[in-house]
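Methods: example folding runs. The two proteins below were folded one after another, and each record is reproduced exactly as written to the output file, sequence line first and C-alpha cell line second.
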Amino acid sequence: MLPLPTKPLALELRQDFPILDQEINGHPLVYLDSAATSQKPLAVLNALQNYYTKDNANVHRGAHSLSVRATEAYEGARDKIARFINARSRQEIIYTRNATEAINLAAYSWGLNTLKPGDEIITSVMEHHSNLVPWQMIAAKTGAAIKFVELDEAESFNLAQFKTLLSEKTKLVTVVHISNTLGCVNPVQEICRLAHQAGAKVLIDACQSAPHYPLDVQAIDCDWLAASGHKMCAPTGIGFLYGKEEVLDSMPPFFGGGEMISEVFLDHFTCGELPHKFEAGTPAIAEAIALGAAVDYLSAIGMERIHSYEQELTQYLWDKLTTLPQIRIYGPQSPQRAALAAFNVPGAHASDLAALLDQDGVAIRSGHHCTQPLHRLFGASGSARASLSFYNTREEIDRFLDCLQSAIAFFS
C-alpha cells in the first residue's frame, strides 16, 4: 500500500491560529504580513491567560507560591530561548521589550562607553532604522564614523566591498541577518569571521531570521544578537538580546533601579549578576512566559521543517510574481531569498495596492518598512510587501496573485 500523502505544514497547524479563521469585507482572510508581526498560536494565548488567571505575581521577590511559580516560568522561558539559539548559558539572554531596545542596550552600554573619535562602525544600506538610528546617535556622541556596505549586482550584501571597508579602525560591525525589504539572507558567519579578524565586535539583527531559520549563535560567533518576540509567534512587548557572557560582563548597566542591583547605599550601588544586571524594574512577566511558549511551539514543529516548507512557499510566490508584467521585485532572485517579497508596480502606489487588496481580504504591507535609505537608493518612496509564514498555503498565494492582478488592472 502506498503511504498517504503528507499534509502541507500549514494545514496541520492552521487550527492553532484562530485569528486566521475570519472574513474581512466578506472574504476569507489571507494574512501575508508576518514580517511586520506574526500571528499567535493557542499555546501562546493560553500561556498568557494561565499566568494572569493562576500565577499572577511579581518575580524574584516573593516566597509565596504564586511568586515562586511565576519566577519558575519566567526564568524557565530564558532557558528555552538559550537552547533555541544555542547560547552557551542562560546568563547570555537578556530580556528586552523588543529588538529595538536590545540594540539600544548594546549601543548605549557598550558603544557609548567604548567608541571614540577615529573609530569606525560598519553597517549596511539595507538596515532597519532600529539598527541604524541608535548607531547614528552613538556616533554623534562619541565622534565615531559610520561606513556602509552597499548592494551587489543581485541586490544583496556586497561581501567583496565589506572586506575593503574593514581596517584596524573598525570597532563594530552591525548588520541584519535577513533584510525585511530585500529578503536576502546575509552571510553572517563569514561576516563575523572577517570582522573578528579585524578586531571588531559584531551585532546581528535577527528579527527576520529567528522565526524562520534555525539559529546557532555559537556557530555564527556573533557578539550580540537581537530578536523580537512578536515576530516569532510571541506577544508584543518582549524581545531579547543575546550577548557573549564575557562581553556582557564588560558592559555597564543600561537602566538603573530595582532588580538590577546587588546592594544599594546612599552614595553608591553594586550591580547584580548577569542576566539581571540589565533588567531593571518589574519585567514583562506574562510576555516572557508566552515567549517561552512560542519557542516551545516552534521547536516542537522543528525549525528545519519550518524553513523547508517556507522555502517551497517562497519559490511558489516568486514564480507567480515574476509572471506579472512590469512588476519590480526588490532583492535577489529565488531561491537566494527568505519568505517575503517587496515590490512596486508602475502607475500604482503601494498604499493604494494594499488598500484594494484589503477589500478582498488580503493583508499585505505597504510603506518604507523602516528602510527609508534603501528605498531612496531605489528611487522609491515605499513598496508593497507580501511576507509568508508556515501557516500560509499555496492557495492563499494564488488568491493574493488573483487580487493583485485585478488591482493592477484597475490602476492601468
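Second run, written to the same file directly after the first:
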Amino acid sequence: MAEVILTDTGKKPISFWLPVVAAAGAFAGIFVGTANGSTLAGVLGGAILVGLLGFLAIEMLGRPMEKTVRWAIVALFVVGGFLLGGIPGAVVGGLFGWFYGWFIYWIGYNRYRAKLVPYLTPGQVLWHYAFRVICGAIFVFLITPILVVMPLSFNAENFFTFTPEMLSFDPAGYSLRHYRDFFYSSDWQQALWNSVSIAPVATLLAVSFGTLAAIGLSSEHVPFRRAIMAVLISPMIVPLIISAAGMYFFYSRIGLQGTYVGVVLAHAALGIPFVIITVTATLVGFDRSLTRASANLGAGPVRTFFKVQMPLILPGVISGGLFAFITSFDEVVVVLFVGSAGQKTLPWQMFIGLREQISPTILAVATILVAISICLLTTVELLRRRSERLRGMSPG
C-alpha cells in the first residue's frame, strides 16, 4: 500500500458521502452479480458492503486508522474474490479493494476538493469529476477489445476464447505457438514482406508530396487554396470503399491494377492527407521572416528549404510520415481492390484468416501490430512536444 497522503479539507457529513460510496459499491456489484447469475443481488450486496465499510472507516475508526483500514479492505476483497472466482477473482478483488479503500477516505474527508479552487460550486465540482469519469469510460470502451486480444494471443489452444486453464493462470494454458506459427509460416512471412516493401515507399511518396503541398498551400497568395486543400484531404473524408472502387476502375484503364506500383501509389494517396495536416499545423507558428532573411543573404529556395524551413517543421513532417506509414501498413480495403495475390499484405492475410480459416495466429499478429502502433504513436507524441518547444508554445 502506498503511503497515505493526508490532504483533508474537512470531514463531510455522512448524508453526503455514504450514498456516494454505496453507489460506487453497487456499480462493482453489477459485474459480480451478473457473473454469478443475479445482477440485482450483486447491486444490493455491493452497495451494502461498501457502505458498511465506509461507515466503519469514517465514523467509527476515523483517520488515525486509515492505513490499517485500507489494508484490511484490500485483504477482505482479495479473500472474497478468491472464494468467488479463484486466483483471477482474487486479483480483481485486490484491485477493487485498493480502489474502495482509497475512495472511501477521498470522499469522506473531502479530499476531492484539495486540488480545486475553493470558489467552485457543488455543480461545477460534480461536472469536473463527471467529465473525467465519462472520458475514462469511453477510453475503457475503446481499449477493452485490444486488452482482450493480447492475452488471447498466448492461448495454448486453437480457440478465440479464454480456456479454463487461462482463467486459473495455469502455465499449461499459455503458449507462444501462435507466434511461432507466424514467424515460421511462409504465407505470413510473405505477407509481412509485402507490407514492409510497400509501406516505406508509399510513406516516402506521401511525405514528399504532402510536405510540398502543405508549404505551397500555407502561402496566402495561392489562388483557390481552400478548394485545393479540400481535394487533397478528401481521401480522409470520402468512405474508403468508394475511394478503393474509384482507384480500381482508374488503375484498370492505365494498366496499374494488380501491380506493385499501383498499390504503392494508392497507399501514398491515402497517406498524403495526414502529412498535409500535420505539416500545416507545424507551419502555423513558423516565422516567415526567417525565409526572407535567408533570401536576403543569397540563399536559393532549395537551400532555404533544407537549411531553414525543414529543421523547424521536421517534427511535423516525421509525425505525418508515421501516420502515413501506419495507414499503409494497416490498410486492407484498397489493396483488395487494387492489388493482386502477389501483393497480399499482412492485413489482407489477416482478413483471409478470418474469412477462410479461423486461425488464432491472427491474434498474435494483431498483438505485434498493436505493439508497433504504440511505439509509433509514442514517437509522434515526443515529436509533438519537441515541436512545441521549438516554437516556444511550451516550457523547455
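Comment on the second run: The chain has a mean pLDDT of 82.
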